[in-house]
Amino acid sequence: MIYSLCLLLILIGLYGVIVSRQTLKIVVSLLIMNHGVHLMLLLVGYRKNGSPPIVDPGTTIADFAAGAVDPLPQAMVLTSIVIGLGVLALMVALCVRLYERYGTFDVTEIRRLRG
Amino acid sequence: MIEVLALLILLTVIAAIITVLTSNLLHAVISVGAVGFLLAIVYLFLSAPDVAIVQIGVEVVSLVILIRATLGREVQKLKTVHAVVGVSFAVAFVAVIGLFGIQVFNAFPQFGIPVMQRFADAPSLVYLQSGLAETGAPNLVTAVLLDFRAWDTLGEATVLFCAALGAVAILRRNARINTDKNKEESS
Amino acid sequence: MSAPPRRLRDRGTGMSMTVKTVMRWLKGPILLFGIYMVLYGHITPGGGFGGGVVIASAFVLITLAAGQKEGLRIFPLGMASRLDSAGLLLFLVIGWLGTWWAGGYFFENYIPTAETARFSLFSGGIIPLGNLVLGLKVASALFLVFTVLTAFHITDELLGETEVQQRQEDKS
Questions:
Q1: B69 at interface of C, judged by CB pairs closer than 8 A
Q2: What is the tens place of the pLDDT at every residue in A14-65?
Q3: Helical packing angle, C162-171 and B173-186, nearest 10°
Q4: In chain C, domain spans
Q5: With 60 as the cut, is the pLDDT of residue C89 above it?
Q6: What is the DSSP-derived secondary structure letter of residue C5?
Q7: Which pLDDT does position B179 carry in this prediction?
Q8: Which residues of C108-146 are buried (b: 16+ CB within 10 A; e: fewer)?
Q9: What percent of chain B has pLDDT over 70?
Q10: Shortest Cα distance from B1 to chain C (angstroms)?
Q11: What are the pLDDT digits (tens) for B25-59?
Q12: Chains with ≥3 Cβ pairs under 8 A against A?
């Protein structure tokens, strides 16, 4: 059931990308898809009532390995979030440039005003 | 516990729906900020404090960037697609992708049982058992990031570098002025 | 074609007195928390990415509250781009030392951790070094991207590349 909610998040982003006509709205919809994928990766690695993957000085390694959540998806999502910010900045820069050139965010207007 | 998690993700989905359906660009940007901050709380519930911290910081910076890009420009009302054909085509496309997605998610393990428990020698299990002894770092996320899988981090650093480079190159003022001047001279 | 947008002028004064005072109180603790997260990233939650983002957000706060001039005085854009490149290169050098100096593979953890030194600041081999370099890189890259996207006029002087512009002037 939680997986279906996560899938819904990705599909909403996809719908926004298809339907919206303004460049910044498309960027925002891509951001939602990005969030959905991150959430899916973290949900796959979750252990029920699991502890964070940080070793406590008091516990033994066997106890820790039996109760901690998966550290691998967390590390990958960590890099992906920062990459997402870089790509978002690049997309917003392109949108701002298009706005300065054509005076609008509308994709259809920009297509009409070619040249 | 699971109910709280489901409720938080439901709130996230509602904020996402508002983002896509609203007609005002500024409202869309603010509700995508709500999506990001709710997801930070979800990550805390999923025992991922590292990811939650990074999510909050990144969300602050990206919201500032998006609001700056929206404000000061003529924010005209969004003209949503009125054509019934367009909307129905989009809904059909999303529905097909959703059917495929349901098939994929059915193949996933049950929620609460991580993938690493299905295999005896899964990499994540090895990281958990021998990460502290091999690297000496108690925070295993950092150990995976900078020791076991440092190649990925190197690639990530390169992507961030290229993205910053691209943003500076696109927005630099002098380049455009020079090309305009060149055009005038050549014409 | 519609008229081009009226360009807004940055007066460089920032926000009101209240915001500036609160910023003056908060910038130190935020910066300190970011540095703590970078240095202790291998023991507690945080690390290079989280700490770098927090350090960058401290500079974002200064820029937003006190105006762009003040933010660029504290952290010039040329320095940000140089630190960005230096962080990437240093990270490569840390990995390359594993093959060249320790004689192993790329990104080998060549500094061993003693059993008694666990859970202390000086442990984890190359992981604290990598955290430090990544924190530097992420903080400067994010501040660079933020300033470029919120600035009103990006010129070459802002980026600290005066020689390039002079060469272009000579050509014309």
A1: yes
A2: 999 998 888 899 999 999 999 999 999 999 888 888 888 888 888 888 888 8
A3: 10
A4: 17-171
A5: yes
A6: P
A7: 52
A8: bbebebeeeebbeeebbbbbbbbbbbbbbbbbbbbbbbb
A9: 86
A10: 22
A11: 889 999 999 999 999 999 999 999 999 999 999 99
A12: B, C
Q: Which residues pair with A51 in a beta bridge?
A: A68
With CA atoms as reference, the chain C residue closest to A89 would be C145
Check: CB of residue A80 under 8 Å from CB of residue C51: no
* CB < 8 Å to C119, chain A: 57
A15/chain B closest Cα distance in angstroms: 6
A27's enclosing H/E stretch is: helix A23-44
pLDDT of residue C1: 38
Residue C9: the pLDDT is: 44
In this predicted complex, what is the ipTM?
Answer: 0.89
Q: Residue B170: list chain A partners with CB under 8 A.
A: 90, 93-94, 97
Distance CA B5, CA B46 (A): 8
Q: Which CATH architecture has domain A2-112?
A: Orthogonal Bundle (1.10)
Answer yes or no: do B168 and C81 touch at CB < 8 A. yes
Which candidate from A8, A21, A72 shows the least CB-CB separation from B79? A21
Kindly report the CA angle at B99 between B95 and B101, in degrees rounded to 5?
A: 110
Task: Round to whole Å and give the CA distance between B25 and C143.
Answer: 25
